[in-house]
Specification:
The chain is an alpha/beta fold and about 150 residues long. Helices cover about 45% and strands about 20% of the residues. It has helices at about 5-25, 50-55, 60-75, 90-100, 115-120, 135-150, and strands at about 35-40, 40-50, 80-85, 105-110, 130.
Length: about 150
């Protein structure tokens, strides 16, 4: 297995953990978005949307995961971390990702209505790399089924 295949396997493994978080959000009546932060090959933070639970529009999975990871590491910069999230971050989350200097973002499904890439494509730190479409079908299906059940 070459390096690219190893990275792809790791990305899928960690995205499955983010999907676990998204399912926990769904089960709690939240929009099913989940996130994990990885440093040195291990998960240091996991989170899901809590906007309904907390009554806080800023309680997105990414914001919760960034705060948890910063607390875990004891500092505000996450320069050696990768954020895995099931849905493309919104512009608010993209700003927080940029300020925290996360080095890599991996997301599953694109968000054509609210995704950062449409509104603020330069919000991330200049050294941040982005990988899209990891387990995209599973991530999108979770969102689709959630909203179908709400209508």
């Amino acid at each position: 297995m070459d390096e690219k295949q190893k990275q792809q396997a790791a990305d899928e493994q960690f995205m499955r953990r983010a999907l676990d978080e998204a399912m926990a959000a769904r089960d709690a009546g939240e929009i099913p978005v989940g996130a994990v932060v990885v440093a040195d090959g291990r998960i240091i933070a996991r989170a899901h949307n809590l906007t309904e639970t907390l009554g806080d529009v800023t309680a997105h999975a990414e914001m919760q995961a960034i705060t948890s990871a910063a607390n875990q590491l004891g500092g505000k910069y996450l320069t050696d971390c990768t954020l895995y999230v099931t849905l493309e971050p919104c512009i608010m989350c993209a700003g927080a990702i940029g300020w925290s200097q996360i080095r890599r973002v991996v997301y599953g499904a694109t968000d054509d209505k609210r995704g950062y890439s449409q509104f603020a494509p330069k919000a991330f730190h200049p050294k941040c790399t982005v990988t899209t479409g990891v387990l995209e079908d599973e991530c999108r299906e979770l969102m689709t089924q959630f909203f179908k059940s709400r209508r």
